[in-house]
Amino acid sequence: MKIVGISGSNVGSKTRTAMDYTLQIAREKYPDADITLLDLAEYEMVFSDGRDYREYEGDTKVVTEMIMAADAIIIGTPVFQASIPATLKNIFDLLPVNAFRDKVVSMLVTAGTAKHYLMVEQQLKPILAYMKAHIVPTYVFIEEKDFHRKEIINDDVIFRMERLVEDTVLLVDAYVKIRAAKDAEYDF
Q: Which residues of 159-187 are buried (b: 16+ CB within 10 A; e: fewer)?
């Protein structure tokens, strides 16, 4: 199983910290999984101009091809101005409409206050649904108060991250079995 984590901003440290924790949990629980972090702060991405993602070069091509090859994607995003960051939106714009077909996508969100939790429901989930993702219904929402010196200090957040990883992997396994059963119906 190939899992790609996306740290969806090119500024700040909280989302990257949360993604590091989450992917470490995934590595410990599922050592056979191929797990990669794409921290968008570490890549020089160009803005989407409507081309097919395979026509781009450099970091843009690397990032989009890694996402397209994944079985599961864990998106980490901060909330900026009550919305997703432009760097993450650009990733969605670079990919085809059906980019997440047969992929499981889960989310964790960092925000300054609890008032921004609806961003996931009203913006991120509709984008992922439009792109045909199998969305893990629950997500991890982490507030400013849950961090101290680039560490997560809320044990409940760690527990929810563990559950998010488990739900993501279980959903991938379930969809693999469903597709195999569906394919077995055809006798050619």
A: ebbbebbebbbebbeebeeeeeeeeeeee
Which is nearest to 104 in space by CA: 72, 150, 137, 146?
Answer: 72
Cα atoms in the 13 Å half-sphere on the side-chain side of 86: 5
CA torsion 166-180-125-38 (nearest 10°) is: 60
Structural domains of the chain in order of their starting residue, each with its CATH number: 2-184 (3.40.50.360)
Element at 161 (helix H, strand E): helix 155-184
Could you give phi then psi for residue 106, rounded to 5 degrees? -120, 165
Geometric angle at alpha carbon 90, from 147 and 139, rounded to 5°: 40
Q: Are strands 151-152 and 147-148 parallel, antiparallel or unpaired?
A: antiparallel
User: In this structure, what DSSP letter does residue 121 have?
Assistant: I
Continuous segment of H or E residues that includes residue 78 = strand 72-78
Does the pTM surpass 0.90? The reply is yes
Taking only the tens place, the pLDDT of each residue in 114-172 is 889 899 999 999 999 999 999 999 999 999 999 999 999 999 999 999 999 999 999 99
* Residue 35 CB neighbours (<10 A): 20
As separate numbers, helices (DSSP H) first and strands (DSSP E) second, the chain gives 6, 8
